[in-house]
Amino acid sequence: MQLALEIDLSAASLQNQVFKQIHGLIVSGRLKPGARLPGTRALSEQLGVSRNTIILAYETLTSEGYLESREGAGTYVSTTFPDNSLSVASGSNHDATYHKPVHLFVPVADDKKRSVPPSEIVCDFALESTDPACFPRSVWRRLTNWRMQSSKFNLTYSGTPKGLRELRETLAAYLGASRGISCTPDQIVIVTGVQQALNVAAHLFVRAGTTVAMEAPGCRTTADLFRAYGAHIAPVPVDQSGIVVRHLPQSRNGVAFATSARQYPMGVMLSASRRDILLNWADQTDSHIIEVDFDTEIRYQGSPPPPLKSLDTHGRVVYVGSFAASIGPGLRVGYMVLPPHLVDPAVHAASLLDHGFPCTGVPWLEQAVLNDFIETGAFEKHLRKIRKTYMARRDCLILALQKHIGSVQINPVHCGTHLVWELPPDFPSAVKLQTLMLKQQIGVYTLRDQNIGDADYLENCDRYLLLGFAALSETAIEEGISRLAKAL
Amino acid sequence: MQLALEIDLSAASLQNQVFKQIHGLIVSGRLKPGARLPGTRALSEQLGVSRNTIILAYETLTSEGYLESREGAGTYVSTTFPDNSLSVASGSNHDATYHKPVHLFVPVADDKKRSVPPSEIVCDFALESTDPACFPRSVWRRLTNWRMQSSKFNLTYSGTPKGLRELRETLAAYLGASRGISCTPDQIVIVTGVQQALNVAAHLFVRAGTTVAMEAPGCRTTADLFRAYGAHIAPVPVDQSGIVVRHLPQSRNGVAFATSARQYPMGVMLSASRRDILLNWADQTDSHIIEVDFDTEIRYQGSPPPPLKSLDTHGRVVYVGSFAASIGPGLRVGYMVLPPHLVDPAVHAASLLDHGFPCTGVPWLEQAVLNDFIETGAFEKHLRKIRKTYMARRDCLILALQKHIGSVQINPVHCGTHLVWELPPDFPSAVKLQTLMLKQQIGVYTLRDQNIGDADYLENCDRYLLLGFAALSETAIEEGISRLAKAL
């Protein structure tokens, strides 16, 4: 690396200047023990001084114990220092003097922090958790190696703004067959995940005062996001057939956020008639629907219901797909399917958020390997495997609840990775139960965490407990529920 | 994959329902020629009908020519269809009927579009272009393979919100030694690049009416970005010593955007005294500085100047680093160095933009391999190589200009990948020259593209031509300049 040194060529003793500045970098902790120094030739070229000057400065630093040279390997900062008064502590201490509170555009949701550190939870029925051990790593590695061998300039090249063409073609074919969504690859924009897609959609549809209808209970981070764009959130209740469409706001140019295949977090499916009403509402109020399809692939029974996008005849729906549930959130690839006239504005919005240059925000390698993963059928095979595994865990959880608690009221879990349990009337509230369980080092979840800002609703929602099952072994599930029952 | 079929078990002829729906998927183009159908057993499980029903439906479709079965490999959609009236054209045609204009939060910068398609430009002196052929692909591949072998759950796991710890440690050490920035790994947040970092910074500091001081000429996409957050952009002129600090706005709680090491696009370095004045201005007006260090590593002479961050004693500076110039924009990894009290708010802002879940927006693999690339010294070696290559191209460009044009007035190019040429008074304007050159299929650039909204400034800026050199071979540079001279 080039060291941050500045030499005054007109001043005396260049060698001393080099010595002093490298010494300064070492004692201030900027140059860390074990760090490799640049070669004497490179440094002399950088500073415009003779190589001999650098050699002499290095020798002095070495004789004083700050540097050590390793035979044939170069010069390094010593790992043992000449004096103990050395302040190797790093970090700008002066920064600590400045503590002006920051007025965030949106508040930090600190109430989402747990009262018990996650490390102390031994059995966590966490929501939106999946089991990374199910992922076929060796297949992914093989596909990665194969792509790396033919990578040429793709690794560092900016690529196209919509994302890898191949992947968009594969997704268009996949969506046609598995979701009934008819779209061209040009209507697809690859993004880093659902959250980025929602930001793009917010850029397209939301400004100060725009009404965003959201399912309640719903995804609070999504409500926070839309609020950051100045939206007014209109919570719309959810029943056993999904969002209660007669409560949709009637303001014009609005937005509705919908998880139609499986409402998050209640797990219910939007009924066919409500699908039609929701689409009509969008047309009549000149509004748009942002449809997020998060975990439809993790389906245990029946066919996935038709997405709103597949029924959309007026270009009102932006469909957002994700691999966070099916592959894992670490992949960082998602996609949007847009009506044709919204594609260019969406690409522009994405470039404001992420790209800057005309390139996609997702590295080429992840896009290419994901394409091959789908195309070779490995994704399908993986889905079959996790469906089987997660279904066994779901059944184990239901059986454990019946065994240890007795009769339990549970929303059907045809799809997804958690169940919603309506607590019996004589049970303590969900929030109390959560606190009780935390003392047992068990993580269970309530609808409070999914509150999107409707105070009335909060009072009624305390009768539901949410339990994620996909990331836990059957043994852990059995043990967790048995502890839960004992603590009651 | 699971097909999007819906079976009414109470209705007659299940087999006919399956037939009709698969037929519908094929003729509507949703299920494409060559697509593999799910196995009969899997489909019968999905739909809850007998396997025989599926087999019979498949057989009918096969006999009618819609499907073909390949020995031992399953059933596929035919690549040759039974009738020519088949509409295989995909894409929702109905979407085309809806063409309501979209009111974007910010305007699409369509004036940035070229009048000649890029494919017709044979010699493009594009700005911010580097040569992907210089990148050590085999080293990167080796490091990737090595990381893949030990990947375990990292590939799909969400990771930590700030980014890979190892990489943040490596960056902290690198920044200490090469930039004189003293920071801990905890002050670093990994992002997908400069653009995402700017969005995070905008969330922290910008709301409706906030004054953002920007160098003029400057980076227009950055101005667009801040405007999208409601900022009022205050253009501040740039001279040979960088941003003219006496023109900084005096409003409180403002922001200044600074490219201190090498002003973009003028290529000048911010003088030491102005660095101090800029930092004092931030303190006195309760403002923050967003410092973007884009291409300091590509330095041909002398040491890089100390970043504002290394001189910041009051936590006023957010430093943004990138690998887009040194490695390539396709990598999609950048980072922010924040004062300690701003780290948590920045992580929260980043989670609104991208993460959603508590995880970083950059895939693990890119972070891990980048870490190894820096740690093993391969990055340093790569930098030495591109410095040499790009310096030769810079020198070739200057020589070609002198040879074909004569005496040329050029800002010093100690650093970076383009030069700024002040046209002689008798030359046509830069914009005219650009049009002239496009007819010769040569891309040259003007300050108009870097206009951040100061109309007065525009009249004076037409005497500068910008020429990027890093991505062009010496032969191409010589040829391009010779054509330029002939066209004059």
TrEMBL record, chains A, B:
What residue stretches are annotated with the HTH gntR-type domain?
12-80
Q: Name one Pfam family in it.
A: GntR
InterPro entries noted in UniProt: Aminotransferase_I/II_large, HTH_trans_reg/aminotransferase, PyrdxlP-dep_Trfase, PyrdxlP-dep_Trfase_major, Tscrpt_reg_HTH_GntR, WH-like_DNA-bd_sf, WH_DNA-bd_sf
Q: Does the keyword DNA-binding apply?
A: yes
Annotated GO molecular function terms are: DNA binding; DNA-binding transcription factor activity; pyridoxal phosphate binding; transaminase activity
Q: Which UniProt keywords apply?
A: Aminotransferase, DNA-binding, Pyridoxal phosphate, Transcription, Transcription regulation, Transferase
The organism sits in which domain of life?
Answer: Bacteria
Q: Which PROSITE patterns would you find in this protein's record?
A: HTH_GNTR
Question: Mind telling me what this protein is named?
Answer: PLP-dependent aminotransferase family protein
Q: Record the organism.
A: Bradyrhizobium rifense
